[in-house]
């Protein structure tokens, strides 16, 4: 039997049998998109900021909603079955195959989550290029899914790892966004995971266009994350881990 | 550290399937001033085809560490491990995926072993019948009782008919009938040439073992013909080490 296919199927079965995952994926977008929108609606419009605050808030809420769900899913995928994973590797699964099943599952579920977020966004604001918007939301989610997986591989503790992912996503969405409260952000913010996906999304929503440079940057970002998570996961699946005596 | 899969020599009629030479293992601390704990300090062991070997020792003596090193899921610091053929490993704690059903668990681990769908189904039916858990095949692992979960844990180690079977207290939670059936299975496997290595705590099992090794002071002692100082106690719930 094909190990990759069997592994992806098992991951998906595990995901949908965790009701909280499904509820979060369906409910959180509504709450986050509208919450961010209303939070920013009370802020004054700035001459340097594109779009009205309410719409911009919803846009940032959508990208944050995808990122945080995908990031937490990535984290949980790497932590929840760490010991069973080692046994699976002992049976013959190559760590890279096992990781590939995890990342493929994450990408698939993230696309669904992005679809939900896109649907909510489309119903609440005018979107110039719907397909691009959906694609860039999915891209932002995949970046955070891989980032969550990396955090889970490096820091295999659910509570601490969740704090890292949530704090990072909140700070990232806030500083990467064009919030009037974060207008003068330092240059290094452009290296944050959501900065370029947000640029892509914002252009697609308000102008129906996007900059190829932003897309290339996100592609490179994904590649770097992929290399890092592969290296760390491979190291954790090696047999020198901290098993109890 | 060195691990090979090279075949080893035949002793009498039985081929040596697993050999560990001068194995050393120390658990270190990740903290700068943390304590490091030497567990094995030069352990030697060899296991031959068709025999049932018991590993005994006090809690914390290094039995599980030794088994994990022989299986290949834990690195050793010094020494060599040679293995021939396939290995089935039944860890003391069932390392399974809670949200998968028993059938899905077989499919996932069977794919890992490189088995075909037909082989997996056949193994599942055979083991479910032998260990009496057919009616739970569609249950999720997290919905099983401890005993049934342990049956699945054992079955995953057995499903690919390994040449060497490494069992870390495999009967924890078994009822008496299952326990007896398990020993019949172990004996049948050994008769067919499988090497069965088992961490054991029960004095009743002494007569079922061909050889007994005690892990003591970081070394492995062949105590087949002696009373052990600490092993083989009447301690069916032997504390995990």
TrEMBL record, chain A:
InterPro entries cross-referenced by the UniProt entry: ABC2_TM
How this chain sits in the membrane, per its record, is:
Multi-pass membrane protein
Q: Which GO terms describe its cellular component?
A: membrane
Task: Provide the protein's localization.
Answer: Membrane
**What broad class describes the main subcellular location of this protein?**
membrane
Q: Which domain of life is it from?
A: Archaea
Entry keywords, A to Z = Membrane, Transmembrane, Transmembrane helix
Where are its TM segments located?
A: 20-39, 59-79, 99-125, 131-151, 158-177, 215-235
Q: What is a single molecular function from GO for this protein?
A: ABC-type transporter activity
* Boundaries of every ABC-2 type transporter transmembrane domain copy: 63-229
Name this polypeptide is given: ABC-2 type transporter transmembrane domain-containing protein
Q: Which organism is it from?
A: Halonotius terrestris
UniProtKB/TrEMBL annotation, chain B:
Q: Which InterPro entries match?
A: AAA+_ATPase, ABC_transporter-like_ATP-bd, ABC_transporter-like_CS, P-loop_NTPase
What are the ABC transporter domain coordinates in residue numbering? 18-241
The reply to whether ATP-binding figures as a keyword in the UniProt entry is: yes
Keyword ATP-binding attributed? yes
Report a single Gene Ontology molecular function.
ATP hydrolysis activity
Q: Where are the transmembrane segments?
A: none
In Pfam terms, one family for this protein is ABC_tran
Q: Which UniProt keywords apply?
A: ATP-binding, Nucleotide-binding
Give the Gene3D superfamilies listed for this entry.
P-loop containing nucleotide triphosphate hydrolases (3.40.50.300)
Taxonomically, which superkingdom? Answer: Archaea
Q: What is this protein called?
A: ABC transporter ATP-binding protein
What is the taxonomic lineage of the source species? Archaea, Methanobacteriati, Methanobacteriota, Stenosarchaea group, Halobacteria
């Amino acid at each position: 039997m094909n190990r990759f296919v069997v592994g992806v199927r098992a991951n998906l079965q595990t995901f949908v049998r965790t009701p909280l995952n499904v509820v979060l994926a369906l409910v959180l977008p509504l709450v986050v998109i509208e919450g961010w929108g209303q939070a920013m609606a009370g802020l004054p419009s700035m001459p340097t900021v594109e779009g009205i605050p309410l719409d911009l808030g919803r846009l940032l809420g959508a990208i944050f909603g995808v990122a945080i769900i995908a990031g937490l899913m990535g984290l949980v995928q790497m932590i929840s079955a760490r010991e069973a994973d080692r046994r699976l590797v002992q049976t013959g699964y190559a760590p890279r195959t096992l990781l590939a099943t995890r990342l493929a599952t994450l990408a698939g579920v993230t696309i669904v989550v992005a679809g939900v977020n896109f649907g909510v966004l489309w119903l609440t604001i005018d979107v110039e290029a719907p397909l691009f918007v959906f694609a860039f939301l999915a891209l932002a989610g995949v970046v955070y899914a891989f980032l969550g997986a990396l955090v889970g591989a490096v820091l295999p503790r659910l509570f601490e790892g969740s704090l890292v992912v949530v704090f990072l996503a909140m700070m990232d969405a806030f500083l990467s966004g064009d919030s009037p409260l974060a207008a003068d952000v330092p240059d290094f913010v452009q290296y944050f995971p959501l900065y370029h996906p947000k640029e892509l999304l914002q252009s697609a929503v308000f102008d129906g266009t996007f900059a190829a440079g932003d897309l290339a940057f996100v592609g490179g970002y994904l590649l770097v994350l992929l290399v890092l998570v592969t290296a760390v996961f491979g190291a954790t699946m090696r047999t020198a881990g901290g098993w109890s005596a | 550290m060195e691990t090979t899969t090279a075949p080893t020599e035949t002793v009498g009629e039985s081929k040596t399937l697993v050999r560990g030479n001068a194995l050393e293992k120390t658990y270190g601390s990740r903290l700068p001033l943390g304590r490091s704990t030497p567990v094995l300090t030069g352990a030697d062991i060899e296991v031959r085809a068709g025999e049932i070997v018991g590993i005994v020792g006090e809690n914390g003596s290094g039995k599980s560490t030794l088994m994990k090193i022989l299986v290949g899921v834990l690195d050793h610091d010094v020494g060599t491990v040679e293995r021939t053929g396939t290995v089935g490993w039944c860890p003391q704690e069932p390392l399974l995926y809670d949200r998968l059903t028993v059938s899905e668990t077989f499919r996932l681990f069977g794919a890992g072993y490189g088995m075909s769908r037909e082989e997996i189904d056949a193994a599942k039916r055979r083991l479910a019948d032998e260990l009496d858990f057919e009616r739970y095949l569609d249950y999720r692992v997290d919905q099983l009782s401890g005993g049934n979960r342990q049956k699945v844990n054992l079955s995953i180690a057995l499903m690919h008919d390994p040449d060497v079977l490494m069992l870390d207290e495999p009967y924890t939670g078994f009822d008496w009938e299952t326990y007896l059936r398990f020993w019949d299975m172990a004996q049948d496997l050994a008769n067919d040439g499988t090497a069965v290595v088992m961490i054991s705590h029960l004095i009743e099992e002494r007569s079922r073992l061909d050889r007994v090794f005690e892990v003591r002071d970081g070394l492995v002692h062949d105590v087949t013909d002696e009373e052990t100082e600490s092993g083989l106690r009447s301690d069916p719930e032997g504390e995990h080490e």
